[in-house]
Amino acid sequence: xxxxxxxxxxxxAPYIRIGVQDGTLFLxxxxxxxxxxxxxxxxPLIHLADHFREPRTRAEALDFLLGxxxxxxxxxxxxxxxxxxxxxxxxxxxxxxxxxxxxxxxxYELSGxxxxxxxxRLASAHVLLLGCGGIGNLVAVTLATAGIxxxxxxxxxxxxxxxxxxxxxxxxxxxxxxxxQVLARELRxxxxxCRIRPIVGAxxxxxxxxxxxxxxxxxxxxxxxxxxxxxxAHCVDSGRAWLNACYVNDIAVWGPLVLPGITGCWxxxxxxxxxxxxxxxxxxxxxxxxxxxxxxSNGPVNMLASSLAALDVxxxxxxxxxxxxLNRRMGVWSHDMSVQAQPADRDPYCSTCADVRPATxxxxxxx
Length: 367
What we know:
- It is built from eleven helices and 13 strands.
- By secondary structure, the chain is an alpha/beta fold.
- It has two domains: 10-91, Outer Surface Protein A, domain 3 (Alpha-Beta Complex), CATH 3.90.930.70; 124-343, Rossmann fold (3-Layer(aba) Sandwich), CATH 3.40.50.
- Helix 9 links the parallel strand 9 and strand 10 (241-248).
C-alpha cells in the first residue's frame, strides 16, 4: 500500500502489442485497439510504452519524455493520456505469472475490471448444472478451471459410446457409468480447489428443483421436454439467475440470461416455435412428427455454445463486462458464422415475472 497522496507505479499490460499497418500505428489489439494516425505521436508513445516495461509513476514517465526524450509538453501529455486509455497500464500487483489464474487475470484487466476482485467473486460462487452431456461437459470444465468455488452436477444419464464424439471428459472406460459422477471425478483432477457435488437424477417437477442445493446460478443444458419452463418458473419464484445453453441443429445457442426482477424471463417473449393452438388437428400431426426428432450433435457446435455460455456466466458472477445474453437469446449459425440476437426483453404484463422485484443475490454482474 502507498500512503495517501503518493502515486502508485504502474506497468505496461502484457497484452499490449504495437504495430504499424497502412500508415497507422496500432496500440493494442482486439477490443482495446487504438489507431494512431498522427505520426508526431508515434515516437513519444513508443518510447513511453517501452519505459513502462518497468514500474513507473505518471510523474516519472512525463519527466522521462520531457527530459531524455526531449518531447514538448503538449505531445508528452497527449502520449501519456493515450497510454492511459484502453487499460494499457496495470498496477504492479495485477499480474503474477506464477499464479494459477494469471492469464485469466489479464483478460479481466483488459475488460476494465480488478482481476483480484473478480477472482474472489468467482471463488465464492456456486453454479448448478442441469445436464452433463456435450454442453454440460465443456461448461463444467471451463468454470471449474476458471476458479468457480462450487459446482453441482445433475444428470440421470449414463455414458454411452455415441457421447464420446463431443463429451470430451468421458472415455470408453466410462461407458455405463453415471455422467455426473464421471464428470465430477475429472473436474477434481483438473482443479482440486473447486468443490464438486454430483447428483444422479433429473428434476421432473418444482419439488425436485426445490430439493436441489441452492446456487447463485443455474445453467440448463439438458433437453428434457418442458424443463426450461419449469426451471424458469422456479428461478423467478426463488430470485435465482439462470441461463439456457443448447444447439438447434447446426446453430450454437445460449441465453437469455435471466435475472429475476431485472431482465426478461423465458416466458416474456416467444423464444421457440410451437404447435398452433387454434389448429388441434395440425398440432397432433406436428407432435407426432416431432416425437421422432433426434438432434444432430456435433462437437464444434457444442463447443461454441458451451464456451460462450460459460463466458457469460463468468461475466455475471465475476462482475466484469456485460453478458452477451442479457435480455436476448444468442445464436451462432455455424454454416456461415453469422450471429443472431433474439430479443428477450422484459414484458411488464408477463404472467410469470410481472410482479417480481429484483432480489439481492451475492453475485450480480454489471448491467
